Amino acid sequence: xxxxxxxxxxxxxxxxxxxxxxxxxxxxxxxxxxxxxxxxxxxxxxxxxxxxxxxxxxxxxxxxxx
Amino acid sequence: xxxxxxxxxxxxxxxxxxxxxxxxxxxxxxxxxxxxxxxxxxxxxxxxxxxxxxxxxxxxxxxxxxxxxxxxxxxxxxxxxxxxxxxxxxxxxxxxxxxxxxxxxxxxxxxxxxxxxxxxxxxxxxxxxxxxxxxxxxxxxxxxxxxxxxxxxxxxxxxxxxxxxxxxxxxxxxxxxxxxxxxxxxxxxxxxxxxxxxxxxxxxxxxxxxxxxxxxxxxxxxxxxxxxxxxxxxxxxxxxxxxxxxxxxxxxxxxxxxxxxx
Amino acid sequence: xxxxxxxxxxxxxxxxxxxxxxxxxxxxxxxxxxxxxxxxxxxxxxxxxxxxxxxxxxxxxxxxxxxxxxxxxxxxxxxxxxxxxxxxxxxxxxxxxxxxxxxxxxxxxxxxxxxxxxxxxxxxxxxxxxxxxxxxxxxxxxxxxxxxxxxxxxxxxxxxxxxxxxxxxxxxxxxxxxxxxxxxxxxxxxxxxxxxxxxxxxxxxxxxxxxxxxxxxxxxxxxxxxxxxxxxxxxxxxxxxxxxxxxxxxxxxxxxxxxxxxxxxxxxxxxxxxxxxxxxxxxxxxxxxxxxxxxxxxxxxxxxxxxxxxxxxxxxxxxxxxxxxxxxxxxxxxxxxxx
Lengths: 66, 262, 339
Hints:
The structure holds 3 protein chains of 3 kinds.
Chain A: E1 2-5, E2 8-11, H1 18-25, E3 33-36, E4 39-41, E5 56-64
Parallel strand pairs in A: 1-5
Antiparallel strand pairs in A: 1-2, 3-4, 3-5
Chain B: E1 6-8, E2 11-13, E3 17-20, H1 27-37, E4 41-48, E5 67-71, H2 78-90, E6 96-99, H3 112-124, E7 128-133, H4 137-146, E8 152-153, H5 167-176, E9 182-184, H6 190-199, E10 203-206, H7 208-211, H8 216-236
Helix pairs in contact in B: 1-8, 2-3, 3-4, 6-8
Chain C: H1 4-12, H2 16-34, E1 37-47, E2 53-54, H3 72-84, E3 89-94, H4 103-113, E4 119-123, H5 129-138, E5 142-144, H6 152-158, E6 159-161, H7 167-171, H8 173-179, E7 184-188, H9 196-213, E8 218-222, H10 241-254, E9 259-262, H11 268-275, E10 281-283, H12 313-322, E11 326-328
Parallel strand pairs in C: 1-3, 1-10, 1-11, 3-4, 4-5, 5-7, 7-8, 8-9, 9-10
Antiparallel strand pairs in C: 2-6
């Protein structure tokens, strides 16, 4: 399936859940924040969250800032 | 003479120097600067994870006891700032937020009106809100009403290192607003930080000056010392600067004339 | 803002230069903020019925004076006279009596005064916010209420009975008037009642507090010195001229924009010199008796206090012009007060 992650289109195996996706794309899941179709998904719900075609996922973390 | 601690939203801090974590060459410099300055509050921002590169997480370089102040930088409206704050809260890294709403890429001046709106929403949701503004008394009063924990007026344009260009306006806030006033933006040298503290500011935040110094950790320590010195000077009661009246005709000679008593 | 010890030091500084230094600084600040404009106003005493017993006042309830309360016809005549002298800002005073001069009486007086004057202020008994709102809507722009002294013990000693006995209600009056929308609020202390330094410190704190809570109001302050009433002296803590000048100067320095008023209790000489230092508002052609302008002969009059400066409006204007001051009778057009 095709989903949009951080603004770019990604081709993914549809059996992957949100937890799998975070592991794939993020070095560590510790300080990752996910927003799926505008809604924040807490980390304890990642494993139980499946994705569908056309979903919009934001993976955000902390960086240096003023 | 010892100072009382800085209290923000009921939490006690012994350092009055806040450090921003942006623009550092590398994360080790950042860690060293935090250690050298003994800052207890640092700002961080939220960004999309870079899917191609695996970067180390900045939080690994910030000691656990330090309070994270999430900066809503990137937000151009109140709604965007609120979204960023809620995202940060979801990470479980606390709910201290510096509201920075900027819709101006030329001067990077904050939008005071949008900042007030964001403060109202986020304070009601239980965030500790530290709003960043162009110093303005009406805005500051509205922020007090909205539930802000501090007010953070800019000293001069972000990154300009120009110091306290807005000095008189910051002084008005210090005089009139019953919240800690934290001078943020434009602080380019420890002497400027000391100046802000001498005026009665509760704390100072600096970022660019430290991050872009040749020896960041060393400058961070200098800032911390300057903030301490300025605070001590303020507490000691600096002598009032006399506005020397121009010599002109005497006004009270009549009191000593042997004229008829009233 | 000065501390009490700082104020004490200033008042106790016996060097002759000390008052001159303060005066120079005060003068500079006054010119900077007020230019050379001096606002002129006149008082009218509508009634001397009073239910309070204040030991220092000519109108106190225990004093045997001819009690009088003017009818609308009577005070209209007085107002016409005052207006004919040039006055456009009036302050209407009464003794403190809810019974004789209730809100309805004051409202009617305000409506009639509006025919003759642009600015109307009241110096009457302290009222509730709702009453001030009513009066504001009727056309009152300003309220004057003096705490007299902030020394509670002394306050209790000199205010023996009546509503005025309630220190806290009186203290909160300026705030209630501000809440009701009044644009001008004046406070004051009666120098001589109690220790000057303490009272000066207290009133400046009160002013600072009011400024903080109600920043849109224009504040005024006055330091009447306890004077003789029919030549009987009443002061217990005398404030001499040097101290008096220092108090006014330091008030100006600490509050650059507050209007400082000097009443006709003070002699012409002192009034004239204080104009050069910090005074921005003064009364002219005043009479402090009910019906004193047109209705009663001088020997029939019972003044609230003895006037030392008896100069007419014309004489005051002449004096001001001779010193290059700008006498201002009205500085704004009347607009409808909306609550």
